[in-house]
Amino acid sequence: MQEKGLLIVLSGPSGVGKGTVRKEIFSQPDTSFEYSISMTTRNPREGEVHGVDYFFKSREEFEELISQGKLLEYAEYVGNYYGTPVDYVRETLEAGKDVFLEIEVKGAKQVREKFPEGLFIFLMPPSLTELKNRIVTRGTETEDLINNRMLTAREEIEMMHLYDYVVENDQVELACERIKAIVTAEHCRRERVEQRYIKLLEAE
Ligand SMILES: Nc1nc2c(ncn2[C@@H]2O[C@H](COP(=O)(O)OP(=O)(O)O)[C@@H](O)[C@H]2O)c(=O)[nH]1
Ligand SMILES: Nc1ncnc2c1ncn2[C@@H]1O[C@H](COP(=O)(O)OP(=O)(O)O)[C@@H](O)[C@H]1O
Hints:
Blueprint: E1 7-11, H1 18-27, E2 34-35, E3 39-40, E4 55-56, H2 59-67, E5 71-77, E6 80-85, H3 86-94, E7 99-102, H4 105-114, E8 119-124, H5 128-138, H6 143-157, E9 165-168, H7 172-189, H8 191-203
Parallel strand pairs: 1-7, 1-8, 2-7, 3-4, 8-9
Antiparallel strand pairs: 3-6, 5-6
The chain binds guanosine-5'-diphosphate (GDP) and adenosine-5'-diphosphate (ADP).
């Protein structure tokens, strides 16, 4: 029987650098996990591509996916739906590959309920002031939305105790190294690694 992959969930407040860290991780040639592309009803930002950054859906299409049970989790965030396609995640895990989700905290909580054996990593900003700087610097939000996101961020940070690990995103490269080290350590800790070596011993 094929071993199942590890479900890795990266979450944290908006603007902390989840997208930046995720893109850096997936630009590294030694990264062996698969990124699950989310569905969203928000409009594409400049340069974003359907099927690469997100699957962009209308509200009607998204609600249809919800009612058909096609989403592992979903959440409404600052007026738009975001969700993870369940079939892709299950099939990829079944194929023995690790799946990486980059999602907000309400969705991560739902995944924890359905997949308690997942690996949950919370990305922390060095400070709330730095978090606000990052959202302002990114320049994608109006002032109202920034204030809204800062309020949401405080609530999100209070959820960090639900995670297995908290990683500070002080520098992107360091945050990526920490995340990869955690995944490597988790593989060593999990029984299936042990089982692989037991099989090896039996074969000799
Ligand atoms: N629950 C959930 N959240 C998601 C999903 N995809 C992205 N998000 C989160 O939705 C929030 C808003 O994403 P986005 O509009 O791309 O803005 P940004 O991450 O702040 O650049 C971020 O916290 C994302 O991590 C998903 O499939 N499910
Ligand atoms: N370690 C870091 N140091 C400084 N700026 C960062 C760091 N990580 C991300 N940023 C910047 O912060 C902003 C928000 O990052 P982004 O990846 O969009 O966050 P999220 O996906 O969590 O909402 C972007 O302008 C990004 O370039």
